[in-house]
Amino acid sequence: MAKHLHLPLVAASLVLCTALPPVHAGDGFGIGSENLRAVPAAATAQIWILKNEKTHYRVVLDDGGQGVVLSNSKTNGLRDLTMPSDTAGHYSDALIKFDGVRYKIFKSCAIDLQDTEEIKKHPDGQCHVN
Question: 3-class DSSP state for residue 74?
Fold first, then answer.
C-alpha cells in the first residue's frame, strides 16, 4: 500500500510543472554587466585565478586571454604561468609570476607574423618567455 502513496505526489508534481509558466531571466541579466571589461580583439575569454586563503578564496589574477599554461616553477608559493595567444598574423606570450599579493607580468613578447624582420628573430613564430 505504501508504494501507491507516491503515485499521487508524482502526478501532482507533473501537473504543477506543466501548468506553471516558464521562468526567464530578467531583462538585466547577461554577460554585458558593467563589472566586465572589454577583451582584446582576438578570440579570448575572461580568466580568473583564485588563491585558497583557508577560510575563503581570493582572486589573484583577473585577465582576458586564450589560455593559461601552468609552469613547474613557483614564485611566492604559487606556480608561474604563461598566457600564450595567437591569431593568423600575431603571436604573444607573457610569463606571469605571483608577487605575494597577485599575479603580475614578469616578461612578455609580441610578434607581428607579417613582419619579416620579426620572423627572422623568432623563426618558430614563438616568444619563449619562460
Answer: strand
